[in-house]
């Protein structure tokens, strides 16, 4: 019994194996054919849903995304209209701000699309400036797109706050300690010299009173004397990434000096601004300016120490909280100081606050800077769009434009010559000195903020000074228009040709081998 069953089982196994072998051979011979059919089927299956998705209703993909974003913007406009009514209609402030904002963004993007072989990219802020200028000078648009002076002034002061926060956070204490003397000379000397030259030239060419000449230029307050970090810093970072001039720390030097240059310009402007628009004696105004400076430094140091330790390291979303505190304190300091009459205190408060706080943030400071940069990306189109919209072609006279251009050109020659002379004692060769002197040309951000400030104040408190204020505004506009693109081109073209290139991985950029004299 056992033997019969085992034989039967053995025969069944053979039959199963014999039936499997042909199928296996058959499968191996037809595998390619089956795979081809499977592939065709899979393609058919994949193609069919895609075809159905393209012709589906409602639409999918990019079209759906565009429709959704458009509806979101429309609903935001509807909500604003429900709250403010006519403010979001043509002629209202919100409507004007939205049009200027999006027009400035489009202008900046269009300028980025203009690419000439072997020529560096032009700064987008130029396109933003021209967009605002176009809106102001096209008859149909200028009648319907308006922003009140109060709104414009508040937004420009807020933009100034963001600029100062970036400048304070951008100061590297170690690099400043190492570069010390040469950095201070580069930041203060050319700025003061160009400011004095602008004051003298504007007095004789533009027939400015001496105090207005000093408001436009000199040692204490200057619109024209400030260099633009918005143009200089990105250009220097690009050169630094490619290894140009890093052995002697030229990009680091110019980045640090540009921030200090703006600090000096803004502080000086506020001092002369209070002198021009006040009725007291010059001595009292100078003492009041010194008081504002001391108050700003003290309050900034206290707030900076507070932000160094609050919020603490163990909290979540630390960079976001720090960025919010810095921005909110900065805006409150600038706008609040103007409300209580301490005009120069708010700006210095921000600089001291951010510098003191950033010294204890180490690597976390970079994350805070990224957030502040995102905030600046919002305010930059507003700032340059509003500045461009302040300039009217109908109000400009041809002789005034020519005189303003001559004033800017002569002042720039003085600045370039003096910068070259100062760098003769800093251990640079001839080509490097030429590059540094020509890199100190671009002007944009400070001029965009401070240029219209005198005009707004004259309209409100001193209408008899409005003609001088318009000339200051014209000079600031033309300075941005001519020096920002030309400065960016000079840095981008001249840098790789005259600076020595080294491997960035072999040289520590923060602390360079620059000899300090």
Radius of gyration: 32 Å
Extract low-pLDDT stretches.
1-12, 14-33, 35-54, 216-221, 509-517
- CATH class membership of the domain at 150-506: Mainly Alpha
CATH topology category name of the domain at 150-506: Na+/H+ antiporter like fold
Count of discrete alpha- or pi-helical segments spanning 4 or more residues: 19
- Gross geometry: globular
Mean pLDDT: 78
Distance between the termini: 112 Å
H/E element sequence: HHHHHHHHHHHHHHHHHHH
Jot down its keywords.
single chain, 517 residues, mainly alpha, Na+/H+ antiporter like fold, 19 helices
What does this structure look like?
This protein is mainly α. It has a domain of 357 residues: Na+/H+ antiporter like fold. It is 77% helix and 0% strand. The protein is built from 19 helices and no strands. 44% of the residues are buried. The N terminus and C terminus are likely disordered.
Can you lay out the helices and strands and say which pair or pack?
Layout: H1 2-29, H2 31-54, H3 61-84, H4 93-113, H5 124-137, H6 139-144, H7 149-170, H8 173-205, H9 210-216, H10 229-241, H11 250-276, H12 282-309, H13 318-340, H14 345-358, H15 364-389, H16 398-423, H17 430-439, H18 445-461, H19 466-498
